[in-house]
Amino acid sequence: MPVLEFALITLIGSCIAGLLGSLTGLGGGFVIIPLLTVFLHVDIHYAIGASLVSVIATSSGSAAAYVKEGITNMRLGMFLEVATTLGAVTGAMIAVYIPTHFLAIILGIILIISALLTLRKKAEIIVKQKNIWADRLKLNGNYPGEDGIVQYSVSHIGGGFIMMLFAGLLSGLLGIGSGALKVLAMDNIMRIPFKVSTTTSNFMIGVTAAASAVVYLQRGYIEPSISMPVVIGVLVGALVGSKILVKTKSSGWLRWVFVVVVMGLASQLIYNGIIGKI
Q1: Is 193 exposed, middle or buried (0-12, 13-18, 19+ CB in 10 A)?
Q2: How do residues 163-174 score in pLDDT, each as one tens digit?
Q3: Angle at 207 (CA atoms; ends 184, 121), nearest 5 degrees
């Protein structure tokens, strides 16, 4: 395929990935890797490298806005980054020793699980009971709500830390931000308000991806001709998605669109991995 044609298709596909990722909060990596590997026949290691760079770019841009609004729990994010960074570096180091078709199958399964998790509906409960470790580490926080400042406490520090190790491992292994797993850990295990868990996850995924990207860069798996159109496309798509999200009253249909797209891409990824085309 000619370089210009490849760059144009990658740019358009990455715009769509950034748009879908912005609307659902899961990031564009969930679409970029299947797009590059299944449809453009890029080696999965180079696709993972490009995805990690795009995650760093999008996280850096959007995280700043959430921190400015006072929603992100930065102290909690930095504490949990110890786990995700350790997991990410470990995942990136062992990824090159795992057969590419096996990586494709694992990623396809993770994509399907993550897509289904976006459909779950759950009533938000603000935990007020103090946790001794959360107090000692000063992880409890607050955020501006509709009726004023909302105070919350963090629970089950150990369980959340272990889950973050797993999320970081998957991030380094598969080149995704693992935002769904981070949100799941903070929301269900640590009992943090959903708005805080999503924004804190967004703050964290850039650091996690950066830790993995260093390993991929050293091994030559970050190719500028692939990464550049991916980063530009994802940033443009994410910007458009954030504007749409502000004007959209209900995001239910947006989540269904994302689920359908990701399920289709994931099934292709698993199929091609099983028959050995990746």
Answers
A1: buried
A2: 899 888 887 887
A3: 20
